[in-house]
Automatic annotation (TrEMBL):
InterPro entries to which the protein is assigned, alphabetical: CheY-like_superfamily, NreC/VraR/RcsB-like_REC, Sig_transdc_resp-reg_C-effctor, Sig_transdc_resp-reg_receiver, Tscrpt_reg_LuxR_C, WalR-like
In-chain residues carrying the UniProt-annotated modification 4-aspartylphosphate: 54
HTH luxR-type domain: residues covered: 148-213
Domain of life of the native organism: Bacteria
The protein's name in its UniProt record: Response regulator transcription factor
SUPFAM superfamilies given in the database record: C-terminal effector domain of the bipartite response regulators (SSF46894), CheY-like (SSF52172)
Organism from which the protein derives: Nocardia speluncae
Length: 220
């Protein structure tokens, strides 16, 4: 059962998402919150699999809520998905850096929304290659993080290759095909890289790969 925490300051939005989620046998909404402070409190109480968090809220916004949840070692299993009205923008980028696994636009089709919840629950990032490209072009064009570059040196050659392919938007199966290994081995390389780099999930791995210079918008 996928346990979901809904966070949005608009009751109508929350009720709409809840009504949709309640139709699914493998999904349950464990709690709702109207601001980021309540989101963190309820995440601690219920330990959901997914926290769907609106990015713009009064007092404690979605970015700060993401940062608090992602920083708490007791909530490492909570996958945070940002909800936004506007698509990819600077706020979404900062949420990804803070620990979000991806984002959804609120006018998403119901079937795509439900699919995305299940994807996030598996631990996969909600970042299509096209979104990754926009992230690169708009927000990673800045001086490289030398500290990140030093940490990259701790990866094995195969782990570095796996990180590069994750940053290019490939799935585990596609990475396995490219590296001529099994999907399980590909997943192992990715998980080890995340552990060494301190990345919470694949989304942070993508950001890290570009900030460190391991991958650039011109290719590797």
């Amino acid at each position: 059962m996928i346990r979901v925490l809904l966070v949005d300051d608009q009751p109508l939005i929350r009720s709409g998402f809840r009504a949709l989620l309640d139709t699914e046998d493998d999904v349950t909404v464990v709690a709702e919150a109207a601001d980021g402070h309540a989101a963190f409190t309820l995440a601690k109480r219920h330990r959901p699999d997914i926290a769907l968090i609106d990015i713009e809220m009064p007092d404690v916004d979605g970015i700060e809520a993401t940062r608090r949840i992602a920083a708490d070692p007791e909530l490492v299993g909570v996958h945070i998905v940002i909800l936004t009205n506007y698509g990819f923008d600077e706020y979404v980028f900062h949420a990804l850096r803070a620990g979000a696994a991806g984002f959804l636009v609120k006018d998403i089709q119901p079937e795509d929304f439900l699919h995305s919840v299940r994807v996030a629950a598996r631990g996969d990032a909600l970042l299509a290659p096209s979104i990754t490209r926009r992230l690169i072009d708009r927000y990673i064009a800045q001086p490289l993080d030398s500290h990140a570059g030093r940490r990259i040196k701790g990866l094995t050659a195969r782990e570095r290759e796996a990180v590069i392919l994750v940053a290019r938007g490939l799935s585990n199966d596609e990475i396995a095909d490219r590296m001529v290994i099994s999907p399980l081995t590909a997943k192992t390389h990715i998980n080890r890289a995340m552990t060494k780099l301190g990345a919470r999930d694949r989304a942070q791995l993508v950001v890290f790969a570009y900030e460190s210079g391991l991958v650039t918008s011109r290719g590797t």
